[in-house]
Design a protein that fits this description.
Blueprint (H helix, E strand, L loop, with lengths): L1 H13 L30 H263 L8 H139 L2 H129 L11 H15 L6 H20 L8 E2 L10 E2 L6 H11 L4 H11 L2
Helix pairs in contact: 1-2, 1-7, 2-3, 2-4, 2-5, 4-5, 4-6, 4-7, 5-6, 7-8
Keywords: Coiled coil, Signal
Protein name: LPXTG-domain-containing protein cell wall anchor domain
């Protein structure tokens, strides 16, 4: 909380403006020059508001003065401590330097030692590599001698392969030269074969035509003979249609007869049902009465039996009599119930018979319609069947009548097919004879061309033999290369391994040197960083001296300013009260030119608030008072400031207004706050931005 108040006080003091206050002009001065001084009743509302505002101003000024004094005391106490801490930071960094420089010197000595070792290691490495490389060169020379022989063998293989390729090329050239004649001869053979094949197919087709003609003749004869079966089948269909009509007529007559029988039985069934119903209706009341009577009597006897103790011998006769009477009553009840059940069953049986008869009657009636429809359908079907059958018979008879002509036509087709086959056979024989002649001529051409091609084959065979011999020689030479390589490779590998080991040992020394150099660089870095840190600490100390000096100056100025503000506020309050007192006493305005400007303005406002309160605007009066206070404050430090933040009392209109700093020494404020350790650099930057003009 104290820190917050201190910042607030410093903000107020540090943002004092740079514009000179305007000359004080009382807004009510002229209005009060000619006012009556004998007024007895006064409206003191505006005076009360002005007086309260003046009191608040005095209290606020005293509060701000106390805060400024507190801030100054804090700065005067903490500044020496901060400066001492800054000096100590420099000494602490300087104290670290000897150890760092000693470490750097040791690192340099280590690097020098490792460089000497590196020189010796490099010399050893060069000697080992030279000796190992000599071993490798010697072994490789022996291998290269054998490899030269193998290379000559490879050249011989290549030459033999070239000869073979040349022989194959000549064979291919001859093949290409002779191929047209071979192709032409083969084409002639193929053409002759195609011609023969076509003739054979034509002959086979003629054979098929003969078979088809004979089959057609047989089919004509069979068709003519089959027409009698067609006629018989058609007559059989007509007979079946007539039989269906007769059966439908019989079914229709049976349906009518059955309906007439059921029509006679239905009234009798109805009468039997009505009689059974009448019997039941006439006997049911009597039987129901008997059943109820017997059931009541049985209940009485059962009650008597229940009341008698079977264990008492004296009740034996009574129990026997009651049981006999109970059995007699149960027999009567069963008889009466049986009669009623018989009558009820008779009614049910009559009902069933009536229902069955009625259903049969309805079915018989429906059967009449069904059989009549079936009869009509049979008659229509008979008519259609007879018509179709007559058409079949007429068609069959026509075929029978045309039979001789059809047979003659089919026999003629058979004869023509035989003649055509004889022609195709002759054509096939001619094609086969021509094929034999073409095949003989073409084969002679092919044989001659193939002989020319085959004449090139011996050269290929000879070249292949030479290539095989060259490959064998190459394999032998390569075997010698492999043998000497296998013999010398261990020496080469050992020498290479020796070089690798020497390289590894050299690398160890390189790594050691690099590590020493890295340590030296790190030690140098530490020394450089310490030097930079010492310079930073010195610069920080210089900045601290500047900032604390500025902060002390600002704090002292703030105390002076707030002291002047308190004096100006108290003068205004005294002037207000004096002016109001003179006005209420009826005195003319006194000459207060010898007083402070704040007192003069307060006197004028106090006087006017009594004699002419309507001319007083409290807010405007306070703003003018602010300017006068600012002017008085500025005189203490030689700076010009605008109104500092202050609380204005509530006016008669019920409003209040708060003034905030607009301009001032924002840089001084930020430096002061940093010097006190009350804000960070970021916070100071925000204050500079907020309060900078």
């Amino acid at each position: 909380m104290k820190k917050t108040k201190l910042i607030s006080s410093l903000v107020v003091s540090a943002t004092l403006g740079s514009v000179a206050a305007a000359p004080v002009v009382s807004q009510a001065a002229e209005a009060t020059d000619n006012t009556e001084t004998t007024q007895k009743n006064f409206d003191e509302t505006k005076f009360v508001e002005l007086e309260q505002a003046a009191k608040d101003r005095v209290e606020q000024a005293k509060s701000d003065l106390a805060k400024a004094q507190e801030a100054l005391a804090k700065l005067e106490k903490e500044t020496p401590e901060q400066l001492a801490a800054g000096k100590q930071a420099i000494e602490d960094k300087k104290a670290e330097m000897p150890a760092a420089q000693e470490a750097l010197a040791a690192a340099k000595e280590a690097v020098a030692a490792e460089e000497e070792k590196m020189e010796a290691a490099q010399k050893d490495y060069d000697e080992i590599v030279a000796m190992a490389q000599n071993e490798i060169d010697t072994a490789q020379g022996l291998i290269d001698e054998k490899q030269a022989i193998a290379d000559e063998a490879k050249e011989a293989v290549a030459a033999a392969q070239a000869d073979l390729d040349e022989a194959i090329a000549e064979w291919n050239a001859e093949q290409e030269a002779q191929q047209p004649a071979i192709d032409e001869a083969n084409q002639a053979i193929a053409d002759a074969e195609a011609k023969v094949q076509a003739a054979r197919e034509a002959f086979n087709a003629s054979e098929t035509a003969i078979q088809e003609a004979n089959i057609a003749l047989e089919q004509v004869i069979n068709k003519i003979n089959d027409q009698y079966n067609v006629i018989n089948q058609a007559n059989a269909e007509k007979d079946a249609a007539q039989a269906a009509v007769v059966q439908a007529q019989v079914n229709a007559a049976d349906a009518v007869n059955n309906f007439n029988i059921l029509a006679a039985e239905l009234p009798a069934a109805q009468a039997a049902y009505d009689a059974a119903q009448a019997d039941l209706a006439s006997m049911a009341p009597t039987l129901d009465n008997e059943i109820a009577t017997f059931q009541a009597a049985i209940a009485v006897q059962e009650g008597i039996l229940a009341s008698l103790d079977p264990a008492d011998p004296a009740n034996a006769a009574a129990i026997a009599a009651a049981q006999a009477e109970l059995a007699n009553l149960q027999a009567f009840l069963a008889y009466s119930q049986g009669e009623k059940d018989a009558l009820t069953n008779a009614v049910a049986a009559a009902q069933t018979q009536l229902n069955n008869t009625a259903a049969a009657y309805a079915a018989a009636e429906a059967a009449i319609g069904t059989t009549e429809a079936e009869l009509q359908n049979a008659l229509v079907a008979q008519e259609q069947t007879n018509q179709l059958a007559d058409e079949k018979i007429a068609e069959a008879q026509a075929i029978i009548d045309q039979g001789p002509a059809l047979i003659t036509e089919a026999e003629t087709a058979v004869q023509e097919a035989n003649i055509n086959q004889e022609e195709k056979l002759a054509e096939m024989n001619a094609a086969e004879a021509e094929q034999a002649e073409v095949n003989a001529e073409s084969q002679a051409i092919i044989d001659e061309a193939q002989a020319a091609i085959d004449a090139k084959q011996p050269a290929i065979d000879e070249a292949e033999t030479a290539l095989q011999e060259a490959n064998l020689a190459l394999e032998a030479a390569q075997a010698e290369v492999d043998a000497i390589t296998a013999e010398q490779q261990p020496f080469i590998d050992f020498a290479k391994e020796t070089i690798k080991e020497a390289e590894a040992e050299l690398q160890v020394q390189k790594d050691a040197l690099a590590a020493a150099q890295a340590s030296e660089a790190e030690a140098q870095k530490v020394v450089d960083e310490l030097k930079a840190a010492i310079e930073d600490a010195k610069q920080a100390y210089e900045d601290l001296v500047k900032s604390t000096t500025a902060a002390l100056t600002d704090a002292k100025n703030a105390v002076k300013e707030q002291t002047a503000a308190v004096k100006a506020a108290e003068d205004r309050l005294a002037g207000l009260r004096a002016g109001a007192a003179d006005a209420k006493a009826g005195n003319k305005k006194a000459d207060v030119s010898g007083e402070s400007e704040s007192y003069q303005l307060g006197y004028a406002d106090g006087y006017a608030s009594i004699v002419a309160p309507d001319t007083i605007d409290v807010d405007k009066a306070e703003k003018e008072a602010d300017k006068v206070v600012d002017k008085a404050v500025n005189k203490t430090t030689g700076t010009v400031q605008t109104t500092a933040a202050k609380t204005v009392p509530v006016t008669a209109g019920g409003t209040s207004e708060k003034q905030y700093p607009q301009t001032g020494s924002a840089e001084t404020l930020a430096a002061s706050l940093i010097g006190l350790g009350l804000v960070s650099a970021t916070g100071a930057a925000m204050l500079r931005k907020k309060y900078r003009v």
